[in-house]
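Batch manifest line 184
LIGAND: 3VV
JOB: complex structure
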Amino acid sequence: MTRSAITTPPPGATLPEPLPGAPAPGSPLGSHYSRCFGCGDRHPTGLHLSAVTPDGVTVTAEFTVGEAHQGAPGLAHGGVLAAAMDEVIGMSVWLFQRPYVTGRLETDYLAPVPVGTTLHLRAWCTGMSGRKAYLEAEGRAGAPDGPVAVRAAALFIEVGMEHFAEHGDAQAILAEHHEYEVNP
Ligand SMILES: CCCCCCCC/C=C\CCCCCCCC(=O)SCCNC(=O)CCNC(=O)[C@H](O)C(C)(C)COP(=O)(O)OP(=O)(O)OC[C@H]1O[C@@H](n2cnc3c(N)ncnc32)[C@H](O)[C@@H]1OP(=O)(O)O
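JOB STATUS: finished
ARTIFACT:
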């Protein structure tokens, strides 16, 4: 991965440990929002990523490239592949039970990905430092040990939960996150 200095953990960054309440290894992670382009089951043309955590700190997921995801005829759009990287990385950092958003996402495209291909995605954290989390991801074509087609490195920034209500749709959050208080 040709990651930049911005997505490289600084000296002193720490590696996360699984939290006591982390989902059991292999259990499905579920969707954080039904209309999410990455994981929502109510998004008609979204990626419908299904994800698990094998160990409480990394995430593996599958995404099958569909007709709605094309750029060149018969091939996945690069922006859609970047969205898949963003989503699986977002899911992995959410394992730490604090809300983060993407600050920077760098993507390497190593091979074209035809419609119908299942990409086997994996995301992991390379370091945390203050509000910053450094993460990487890869997508392998056809099988978990298939050839790497896409790689990504990212800087995610921790925000308060109010970030989503302030800038997004507070009613939609309340409808799906009953534990969430908009005005705590
Ligand atoms: C129904 C939902 C309910 C909630 C559920 C939540 C759980 C979710 C669960 C599962 C997720 C699944 C996956 C989701 C999808 C994947 C994630 C996305 O796509 S997120 C959307 C795209 N990203 C944005 O929209 C961010 C837009 N940007 C911002 O809002 C701000 O710029 C923000 C928050 C990133 C930073 O703003 P500041 O004002 O808080 O802080 P400042 O001081 O600017 O930055 C803090 C530090 O970070 C550095 N920084 C920030 N952005 C940087 C960048 N692009 N490059 C380099 N450094 C950056 C700064 O230089 C600063 O560093 P120094 O502390 O000074 O050392």
